[in-house]
Design goal:
Length: 144
């Protein structure tokens, strides 16, 4: 029997991964959410930052809550590996990204604003991406 919560969480991890694939990132998803990050994403060569994104995805009613032990591990991970640790989460069926997710009051923004600010990528909104991704013959946003 499949755990509904696991299925819901894994589905959101795939959504986040495909959003970044659509914007030319290379991704690796951790099997069964093992390790610090659920999804690791390498930016395209032409992005303004070379930092790899470590995403700890949350798709719960608690929105952006991460327990203290996990927050500590995420902060240590960012310091050790010099990466960008973020927490994509859903609020009212909309995706948001929390920067510095080990802080309770970390900066929160939409995914397209995150990619613009930190990577210089003009990204489609979550809604536009979902509409394009599931249509035939539309796989990736064209390169600039």
């Amino acid at each position: 029997m499949v755990n509904r919560n696991y299925k819901k969480g894994a589905g959101f991890e795939y959504e986040w991964m495909y959003y970044l694939i659509y914007h030319h990132f290379d991704n690796v998803r951790s099997y069964a959410s093992k390790g610090v990050a659920d999804v690791r994403s390498v930016p395209p060569k032409w992005a303004k930052s070379p930092l790899v994104i470590y995403a700890q995805c949350k798709n719960t009613k608690k929105e952006d809550y991460i327990n203290p032990k996990e927050r500590r591990e995420l902060h240590e991970c960012q310091q050790k590996f010099q990466c960008m640790v973020v927490e994509p989460f859903k609020k009212n069926r909309e995706c948001l990204v929390k920067i510095n997710c080990w802080e309770l009051d970390g900066e929160i923004m939409k995914p397209e604003a995150f990619l613009k600010k930190y990577y210089g990528i003009e990204a489609d909104s979550w809604k536009v991406w979902r509409n394009n991704w599931f249509r035939e013959n539309v796989k990736r946003k064209p390169l600039d």
